[in-house]
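Listing S7. Sequence submitted for prediction.
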Amino acid sequence: MTDTPAMARKLRHAFLTEAPTRAVMAALGAGNARFVGGCVRNALLGRPVEDVDIATRLPPAEVTARLEAAGLRAVPTGIAHGTVTAIAEGRPFEVTTLRRDVATDGRHAEIAYGADFAEDAARRDFTINALYAEEDGTVHDPTGEGLADLAGRRVRFIGDPALRIREDYLRILRFFRFTAMLGLPEPDAAGLAACAAERAGLARLSGERVQKELLRLLAADDPAPALRAMAASGVLAELLPGRLDIARLARVVEIEAGELFECDPVRRLGALLAGDAAERAAIAARLRLPNATLHRLEAMLSEGPALKCYLSVREVRQRLYRIGADSFADRTILAWAADPKRSNGVQWRALLAMARSWERPVFPLKGADVIAAGVPRGPEVGRVLAEVEDWWIDSDFTEDAFSIIERMKAVVQASVF
């Protein structure tokens, strides 16, 4: 490997000249640091740059001292791995000392600090992620292959794919994520073979790491081709045991794009899961899904009132009230994706339009109204309210106050306390 800049290749991206970026680089000192990884890759691709990572020759203690001397915050977010997070104008920058792996167990690496950018590049996962850029935008390609692979839309491991994977089995998922991100119809053959051979190592990874990487994969413009390759190689079954429906996921991706919905990786995960509640629970446990995500998936995939494209306006309002607009949209999109009759799209689209414009009506009765009608405090108050609310929903949310009060009185009179 060499540490020479690409001939006349320079980044042209806003993040290079933003004040927080310049403040951090100035604090680290000329020649001591380069941008690395995703920010360089995305800038070369013309994609948005969200996170700016910096590689430096300076040891962590000196990074901290220089940042603080410049009036910037230094947070030891990954000090065991040589990472200090610089905070400039509220924006974080991960600053990591150049390093090499001394030993690894497939989850954690024992590292040693260095001062050689080429040596640092050799320990990274893919050639397209081992690109560096100086403060003036000069690009360095230590592997000699990263720029060519990026231009050719190839995701290739650095060196021996199996060795790279054994250093961190999460690289299997990252291989498919970047394949999906670049929109490749087929993964690199050598990388795919290594992922298939090493897939059992995924069991060593924490659920949180797998969850994060899987959701990022599902956020690609079209994750379906990568997921099919994962399924064919046996990788997907290691991650999501149970029945899956990649075809439904692919239709959800089409619908989201056609309806201008933002990409939603949780909805896409729901579209992928085709098993029963027990299978979903096993997958949720494997991925260590947060409760909010789990509850959303269960609402999305529940066997509640069916959503059909021909529902009346009244039926739509009732379902919106019962399950909420967000869950209604999730379930409508999944039902549309499973509908074999493509000509029903106009009707499905109308349901989604109603959900977007719907305002939840407020049930006008309160517990105090029921108590004033003679019901003693306690669970009977809630039961009467629920019964009247059911009637109110069936009446299409009547605003006739007299009718609502009369219904409450009828329920109270028929009750035994």
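Caption to Listing S7: primary sequence and predicted structure tokens for the chain studied. The chain has four domains: 1-152, 158-301, 303-357, 367-413. Residues 379-394 form the longest helix (16 residues).
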